């Protein structure tokens, strides 16, 4: 979000051009990393389940050496047929498969997620409404850590017990994001964004000053985001 806001604030002049190019390069790398390594849907879940371990070449499929046995039992029941989300963290040999509300919502609003991934996140929320929202405001994460696991991972603070504030608790403030996300996704799709778009939603490049467009994969040449076409 900060990088995209910076693109809006910088002027595409000689002094700002260098910073814009650096930001775009960072956004490109960050978007690719998020969408490639943090995204989880039913297809990716099946791929992780069949991962081979101890692959160390540049052609390795299991780049983080995630152990299939580390897959928690709950994730198979939680993942709907149509839907997906960005996992909490990816580290060597394991992934944090928990669903974090704020992270996935910000991924949509900051365009780290593709339109298809954004729709899949909302589909998952709709499919798992009882678990994620129910009669209370939306939970900050799901599922909550239980037994001794919450003590090991989050510390022994009472605020971190199961379904407490920091461990699966309900955060009313996040609920307002759900009013914005459906309109944001429909706007992206109506503007004709393809699934393989790398950088979009407010990006600038040196070509903008001369009437060019940084959004390489729009279906139409009239990019409604670039200032030259607005």
Q: How would you describe this structure to a colleague?
A:
With 230 residues, the chain is an alpha+beta fold. It has a domain at 18-37 and 99-210. Helix content is 40%, strand content 9%. Helix 1 (2-9) runs antiparallel to helix 2 (14-38) and helix 6 (115-127) packs across helix 9 (177-190). It is globular and about 60 Å long. 24% of the residues are buried. Mean pLDDT is 75; it is low at 193-230.
Question: What's a concise summary of this model?
Answer:
By secondary structure, the chain is an alpha+beta fold. It has a domain at about 20-35 and about 100-210. It is about 40% helix and about 10% strand.
Brief descriptors of the model:
230 residues, alpha+beta, four-stranded antiparallel sheet, 9% strand
- Flag low-confidence runs: 193-230
* Largest sheet entry: 4 strands, antiparallel
- How far apart the termini lie comes to 21 Å
* Count of strand segments: 4
Topology:
Layout: H1 2-9, H2 14-38, E1 39-41, H3 42-49, H4 74-78, E2 84-91, E3 94-100, H5 101-109, H6 115-127, H7 129-132, E4 141-142, H8 149-154, H9 177-190
Antiparallel strand pairs: 1-2, 2-3, 3-4
Helix pairs in contact: 1-2, 5-6, 6-9
């Amino acid at each position: 979000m900060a990088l995209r806001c910076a693109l809006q604030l910088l002027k595409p002049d000689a002094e700002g051009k260098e910073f814009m190019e650096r930001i775009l390069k960072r956004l490109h790398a960050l978007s690719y990393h998020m969408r490639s390594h943090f995204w989880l849907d039913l297809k990716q879940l099946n791929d992780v389940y069949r991962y081979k371990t101890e692959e160390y070449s540049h052609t390795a499929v299991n780049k983080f050496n995630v152990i299939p046995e580390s897959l928690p039992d709950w994730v198979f029941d939680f993942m709907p047929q149509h839907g997906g989300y960005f996992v909490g963290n990816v580290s060597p040999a394991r992934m944090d498969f928990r669903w974090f509300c704020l992270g996935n919502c910000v991924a949509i609003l900051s365009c780290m997620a593709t339109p298809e991934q954004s729709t899949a996140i909302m589909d998952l929320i709709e499919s798992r409404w009882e678990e994620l929202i129910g009669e209370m405001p939306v939970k900050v994460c799901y599922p909550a850590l239980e037994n001794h696991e919450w003590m090991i991972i989050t510390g022994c603070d009472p605020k971190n017990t199961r379904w407490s504030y920091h461990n699966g608790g309900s955060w009313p403030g996040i609920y307002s994001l759900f009013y914005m996300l459906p309109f944001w996704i429909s706007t992206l799709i109506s503007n004709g964004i393809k699934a393989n778009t790398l950088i979009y939603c407010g990006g600038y490049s040196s070509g903008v000053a001369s009437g060019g467009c940084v959004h390489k994969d729009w279906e139409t040449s009239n990019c409604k985001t670039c200032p030259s076409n607005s």
